[in-house]
Amino acid sequence: MVLSNGNINASYVVENINLANNIERRLEMLGMTTGVKVVILNKKHNGAIILKVRGTRFALGREITDGIEIGEYENE
Amino acid sequence: MSEDIHVAFIGNPNCGKTTLFNAYTGAHLKVANWPGVTVEKKEGALKYHNNHYKLVDLPGIYSLTSYTMEEKLSRQYILEDEVDIIVDVVDASSLERNLYLALQLIELGKPLIIALNMMDVVEERGMDIDLHRLPEMLGVPVIPVSARKKRGLEILLHAVAHHNRRHGMDKIEHQHKNEREKKSSHQHRHHKNTVVVYDDWLEDKIDIVENALREKYGAINNLRWYALKLLAHDEEIMNKYPLDITTVAEKSYEKEIIKQKYDFIEEVIEEVLVHKDRESKNTDRIDSILTHRYFGIPIFLLTMAFIFFLTFTIGDFFQDWIVLGIDKVSDIIKNFLTYINVSPVLTSLLVDGAITGVGSILSFLPNIFILFLALAVLEDSGYMSRVAYVMDGIMGKVGLSGRAFIPLLLGFGCSVPAIMASRALENPRDRLKTILITPFMSCSARLPIYILIAGMFFGDNAMYAAFSMYVLGIVVAIALALIFSRIDKNKNTNTLLIELPEYKSPNAASIFIYAWEKVKSYLSKAGTTIFVASLLIWFILHFNMSGMVSDIGQSFGGFIGRVIAPILAPAGLDVWQIAVALLSGVAAKEVVVSSMSILYGVSDISSQMGMTNVVSKLSQIGFSQLNAYALMVFCLLYTPCVATLVTIRKETGRARWALFSVFFQLFVAWVAATIVYQVGSIFFR
Prior knowledge:
heterodimer; A: alpha+beta; SH3 type barrels; 2 helices; 38% strand; globular; B: alpha/beta; Rossmann fold; Helix Hairpins; 3 domains; 7-stranded mixed β-sheet; 12 strands; elongated
């Protein structure tokens, strides 16, 4: 599943990122590393989302959310 | 006298760095550009306990890489310049993300202090940060501060005074001996002298690169940092220290380095952050309304409408007082000049040229101040970045990311910083498109034109007429973006990526300093560009080949105006005075107003009397509401001012794009004004 298919208010784990190198690195520097928990806060028809990762909110466009693979987050 | 201590303030965007900087310097800061580029550089000076400090506010960055111009500049500055100490401003309420840059700075090995800002926010939420454990784990002093509440400022300065001469990491080693080796899960031989220790395989590579560097280049400070950058294939460092590292790093290890830094950060957070689940719900609540998928756009439009309402109504109230003041000053100077027998030519130059021209511009100061104040509030509160998300859908349809809307929005203030703000867009083609459409947004310099012309011709509806210009500006900009992306065959890459900071009530000091800076530049523009343009206009209107003329219709200006005016006839602007005013407006858009006041010989053009005077003159030649509206449309869209053109050239790196803007905007303005006038004539004549 990719991030743009996620549901609002649900938590996921980032499994893999398939984007252009520089965007991938940028995202990682902002804390979006593999294995990190993300929460989707808001979503638009065009696939743009607002998410929270490591305590910070980001708005991401469709091109990016389509390239981020996520899995279900299991509560410890 | 002791020498200056150079302090560099660095930090993530939205970490409150500028608020902290302002708290130290007040409004006494020097804003300039970094050499060669148009990135703002803020400097301030300060004296505390016999020490003189020179503070530099670096651009907000997330990382010390060389992906963006801001990152490059900040990095070069702290690497090479005479920086005695770095103050890393960290947003305590967003500690995890902020520590990433902090770790990079620690690795850099320069004297560093962490200013843990927004401690008040952390406390409000009921979270706690272990202020003993954090510096122990990071090996650098950590000073809790609250820039907004001005707490901890002196203690931070104290720390700066005591730590700036310290070299290297001796202190870190000392602290690590006691704590690290016992408790950290990162058992590694490097722990004595480094904070972040990577996996063994990566540390092995670091060792190899460090040795190779030392062998080839001798003693380099912060060898480890350079080794890490080479392993990450950092372009700039690879050019600076070319080294064959294919045997250890045939590929870039940046991904692994980032990941392992965050692993360490997780460890730090685990130990120092107490009650970390107590996050603010307020931002989420506000966001659920402001970024709502249906209400988001209407709320944004209402917000903008409210801002312009304030700009016009409150601004106008103060404007009347300024006009009165300028009249008095003008009278006093005129009487004085006559009294001391100054020649009539010089008196006319000073009173009819300089004072009339500059005065007409000064009277709009309150409107401009309120507009910038409102824009500052939008930015400081955190709403501006939400607008990027809200507008992402519409912008996506015209081939741009929602992020491109921020430069457009800033364009309501001034095109120059707005065009610079387009730098945040990664894709060069998106950036170029944004740069070319930004000047269509109605900047504050065009505000006096609308207030004046709408005020003269639209009476009670003046505000709506003026507001329609702002809407038209957005519509034209977005429509052109659509056309550009149709022409541009390249697939658009809509890569919206923007941080949405927590909402906060705007800091009064910060927004006043911001607005004051803008007012100052407006004033200096009135004193320079507009002053000179006014003198020039006065000259071409009062002279021709045979010397001074009493009828301005016979002057150089009259001649030039009559050559241009027929071209403007289809747009209903076949008036030579208007042609001259428009031509002069290329110097700065406000000059249209100052020129009109000189052209029509009214010193107080924005007063009721002045307006009636001009209207009666224009009405005599059949200039109606429709002509006036076409004039406003033309002013909105035509050739940007010289400052904007220079910025376009600088930011695109090509003079031809500036030249393109000159003719393209002229063309768009002519077409739009003609449509307005011709279509309008069918209905209103």
